[in-house]
């Protein structure tokens, strides 16, 4: 049994990823209860603050995705309430949540990341969309990968293989955010590397290879059982696996993250890994990559979560 008597799991919120967050929260609560932890699951609504003030938890696990869970805001509220929590601080979240900023930080630490440009939709309105899009293709070449500068679950993301596809991709991207990140598309093996810190410093777990049935790891491929094939460990050479693990730990450290994170990487045909993005609140559903990596490493997911919560409570 755990020494923790009252733990709060936050799930839901009002982002586009609400349904995924609810699934993550249920999974976190289930495995924690199996590990002997008394868990309360709450949404982030007007009842949260009064409930916490009336019955303060010893620690909180943030299973929120999208802006509400990853931009640092809810963690700032937890700090105002003196509730310790698992995961990165508000400042670190803000840096990691903005993909162009995160790319700039890890690049300064020597990590490779695809060439890219980030532009708000106002730029296209003010300067003329066709002229700007033409310069993007001239500068970065084709194919391209377009995604919102903030957010997750591949919402608003798409591959662009011809110049004619780019305008529609931008419209789809702007439906989920005001700034688009347009990257040079890297053809290779897509992997996810989870990092945990149980007290001895950040450790990268086995990289998980992602092979979606339609070629793109989009929202449906992420959260529909059977739509994606996973290989753990990834089908890479030992040298490539170690390079990916080192990249994930470096990204975790460079961005000032804490407790857990998940870094998405593409390994090109020459074996060069490229940093794509990092997630401070990884998905915890039945098809999510972080739980898969923990279980592949031979660790019990509930035990890992319990230790992270105990460490957070000790910080508090």
TrEMBL record:
Documented EC number(s): 6.3.2.4
PROSITE patterns, sorted: ATP_GRASP
Binding-site positions, Mg(2+) 2: 277, 279
Cofactor: Mg(2+); Mn(2+)
Chief location of this protein within or outside the cell: cytoplasm
Keywords on record: ATP-binding, Cell shape, Cell wall biogenesis/degradation, Cytoplasm, Ligase, Magnesium, Manganese, Metal-binding, Nucleotide-binding, Peptidoglycan synthesis
Chemical reaction(s) catalysed: 2 D-alanine + ATP = D-alanyl-D-alanine + ADP + phosphate + H(+)
Ranges for domain ATP-grasp: 103-310
GO molecular function: ATP binding; D-alanine-D-alanine ligase activity; metal ion binding
Family matches, as SUPFAM superfamilies: Glutathione synthetase ATP-binding domain-like (SSF56059), PreATP-grasp domain (SSF52440)
Residues that coordinate or bind Mg(2+) 1: 264, 277
Record flagged with keyword Nucleotide-binding: yes
Pathway the protein contributes to: Cell wall biogenesis; peptidoglycan biosynthesis
Residues at the catalytic site: 17, 153, 288
Cellular component per GO, a single term: cytoplasm
Cell compartment(s), UniProt: Cytoplasm
GO terms under biological process: cell wall organization; peptidoglycan biosynthetic process; regulation of cell shape
Key word Ligase present: yes
Uppermost EC category: ligase
Cofactor: binding comment: Binds 2 magnesium or manganese ions per subunit.
One Pfam match: Dala_Dala_lig_C
InterPro entries: ATP-grasp, ATP_grasp_subdomain_1, D_ala_D_ala, Dala_Dala_lig_C, PreATP-grasp_dom_sf
Family: Belongs to the D-alanine--D-alanine ligase family.
Alphabetized NCBIfam families for the sequence: PRK01372.1
Known function: Cell wall formation.
Official protein name in the record: D-alanine--D-alanine ligase
């Amino acid at each position: 049994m755990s020494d923790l008597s009252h733990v709060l799991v936050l799930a839901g919120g009002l982002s586009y990823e609400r349904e995924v967050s609810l699934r993550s929260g249920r999974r976190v609560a289930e495995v924690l209860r199996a590990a002997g932890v008394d868990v309360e699951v709450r949404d982030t609504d007007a009842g949260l603050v009064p409930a916490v003030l009336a019955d303060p938890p010893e620690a909180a696990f943030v299973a929120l995705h999208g802006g509400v869970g990853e931009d640092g805001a809810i963690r700032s509220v937890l700090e105002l309430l003196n509730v310790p929590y698992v995961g990165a601080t508000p400042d670190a979240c803000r840096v990691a949540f903005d993909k162009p900023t995160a790319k700039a930080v890890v690049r300064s630490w020597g990590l490779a990341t695809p060439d890219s440009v980030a532009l708000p939709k106002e730029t296209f309105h003010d300067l003329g969309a066709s002229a700007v899009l033409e310069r993007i293709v001239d500068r970065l070449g084709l194919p391209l990968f377009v995604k919102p500068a903030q957010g997750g679950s591949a919402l608003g993301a798409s591959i662009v293989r011809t110049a004619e596809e780019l305008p529609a991709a931008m419209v789809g991207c702007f439906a989920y955010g005001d700034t688009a990140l347009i990257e040079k598309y890297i053809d290779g093996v897509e992997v996810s590397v989870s990092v945990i810190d149980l007290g001895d410093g950040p450790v990268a777990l086995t990289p998980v290879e992602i092979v979606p049935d339609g070629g793109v790891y989009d929202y449906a491929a992420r959260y529909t059982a059977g739509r994606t094939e996973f290989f753990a460990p990834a089908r890479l050479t030992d040298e490539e696996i170690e390079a990916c693990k080192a990249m994930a730990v470096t990204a975790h450290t460079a961005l000032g993250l804490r407790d857990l994170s998940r870094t998405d990487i593409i390994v090109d045909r020459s074996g060069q890994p490229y940093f794509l993005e990092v997630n401070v609140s990884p998905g915890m559903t039945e098809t999510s990559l972080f739980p898969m990596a923990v279980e592949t490493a031979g660790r019990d997911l509930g035990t890992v979560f319990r230790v992270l919560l105990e460490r957070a409570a000790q910080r508090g």
